[in-house]
Write a structure and sequence with these properties.
alpha+beta, globular, 3-stranded antiparallel β-sheet
Length: 472
């Protein structure tokens, strides 16, 4: 018989004549009641359901208690709800609401086979860890690790979910490329010291279009920031063009991506242009001397930041194969000169120098916010596994958690106060809702907190989601 523990009473500071007593005896209460919104979005987009098709499950289906789909829903939903580590799941496996999100037939766990698992509907950290550590060559003869991930299929799914978000093909899309550091604290495979960041890290490459993620590739840090970018762009553009043959693509990145290979690829691909930052040098600064002098004079007269632009042709002495259009920004601030340069394949007739720089190039800064969402809010930097393949899989899980959260933002939050909110804000205001869960034979009752301050907004969002058709 399972031991029945008596909750320990905790005495808090009293309120006037009243004692304040607390116990952990409130029943099945979850702090993640708003997670049902993510479940409703998943039922209408099938993001995690299709993610399950990116794996090959060699397990004997008659002997398992956790389907592949339920394992992935548990992992991805937990990341979206703020649980970054596998260790969290040894406690989360008892959470009835998370079991509901994972579509467990009995979210109370009363139907588990082993006595020690009774009341724990979800998988523990060891089961989820085996999912991440399954080697590429595993098959039905493997002893423990039998669920093999297909990275290529996951790459394609990221692009497909982006394509499906449009009701009709756009005339033009902008692909933002950027790299960041993923700091390492152990002896992970592929660990290298990076001189710019000043620590051991990975160097993941991200590709976004607006708020939507199209690519997330984990790379070692012993290479250029632009390494592998052409290959990633080629596969994404090919898949996009298959769906939208006439769409124009603009590749945008900072000076770390101003590489001959990327520019040549864009120039050789019909309908693909580039706008890339260009590192300043003495030759470039000499080309905008007059503009900088004019900006300085305006600053001295007004004591306000002044800028001027120059459009000119430029070619490096060795690294570029041809002459290209460069836009120089001559800016003078309180701290002095601030010259900046951009190289592009877009003609001056289409976009003048100022518009190209201020509207065409500077907008790429928004991508940095998307990367911060991935790294800070959805734990893309929790790459502590010893194997790089497992760490790439963790990056995929974080990526699909982001895709799910972005789908919620795109489909249900437009026009609300959270329309532009980042993932951690959405989590705090919509998902972290106290709720009591009661499970009966025919119903699952979710009683949300009466003092929840965003109840009206929550109901409005749920009403919007219900208008979206369910997937078959």
């Amino acid at each position: 018989m399972e031991t029945q523990c008596t909750p320990v009473a905790m005495g808090f500071h009293g309120l006037e004549c009243r004692e304040v007593i607390g116990k952990f005896d409130g029943g099945r209460i979850s702090s993640d009641g708003g997670g049902v919104l993510l479940r409703e979005i998943e039922k209408r987009t099938g993001i995690v359901k299709r993610l399950a098709k990116c794996f090959h499950d060699y397990r004997n289906q008659e002997l398992i208690e956790h389907s592949l789909e339920s394992l992935l829903k548990q992992r991805v939903f937990a990341i979206a709800l703020g649980y970054e580590d596998l260790n969290d799941h040894d406690a989360l496996r008892q959470d009835v609401l998370l079991a509901l999100l994972g579509d467990k037939a009995d979210p109370t766990g009363a139907d588990r086979r082993c006595a020690q698992d009774k009341g724990k509907a979800l998988a523990g950290k060891s089961t989820l860890n085996r999912l991440e550590l399954t080697p590429e060559e595993a098959d039905e003869t493997s002893r423990y690790k039998k669920i093999v991930a297909n990275p290529k299929a996951m790459d394609e799914l990221l692009v497909d979910t982006f394509l499906e978000s449009y009701s009709q093909p756009p005339a033009q899309i902008v692909l933002d490329v950027d790299a960041t550091d993923d700091r390492l604290h152990g002896q992970q495979e592929g660990r290298f010291f990076h001189g710019y960041y000043g620590h051991y890290c990975y160097l993941p490459l991200y590709i976004f279009c607006g708020e939507q993620l199209l690519g997330a590739r984990l790379r070692t840090a012993d290479q250029d920031a632009a390494a592998g970018c052409v290959e990633e762009l080629a596969r994404i553009i090919e898949r996009v063009r298959t769906a939208w043959p006439a769409v124009r693509v603009i590749v945008r990145g900072d000076s770390g991506f101003c590489r001959e290979a990327i520019m040549s690829f864009c120039e050789a691909t019909e309908g693909v242009d580039f706008v890339l930052g260009l590192a300043k040098n003495e030759r470039l600064k000499a080309a905008i001397v007059e503009e900088m002098s004019a900006a300085r004079q305006r600053y001295q007269a007004t004591e306000k930041a002044a800028r001027a632009f120059k459009d000119f042709r430029y070619q490096t002495r060795d690294s570029w194969s041809c002459e290209r259009r460069v836009v120089g920004k001559a800016e003078y601030l309180s701290k002095g000169e601030n010259p900046r340069f951009v190289v592009t394949s877009i003609s001056p007739d289409e976009m003048d120098a100022r518009t190209l720089y201020e509207d065409g190039y500077c907008a790429r800064g928004e991508m940095e916010n998307r990367i911060k969402e991935q790294q800070l809010a959805l734990f893309a930097d929790r790459t502590s596994s010893s194997e790089m393949r497992a760490n790439q899989l963790r990056l995929y899980f974080s990526s699909f958690a982001y895709v799910l959260m972005q789908a919620l933002r795109r489909l249900a939050l437009a026009g609300t106060e959270l329309a532009k909110a980042q993932c951690d804000t959405i989590r705090l205001k919509l998902l972290k809702v106290g709720a009591q869960v009661r499970v009966t034979v025919r119903k699952i009752w979710i009683a949300f907190s009466e003092s929840y301050p965003y109840a009206a907004l929550f109901q409005q969002i749920m009403s919007r989601i219900q208008q979206i058709p369910l997937l078959n």
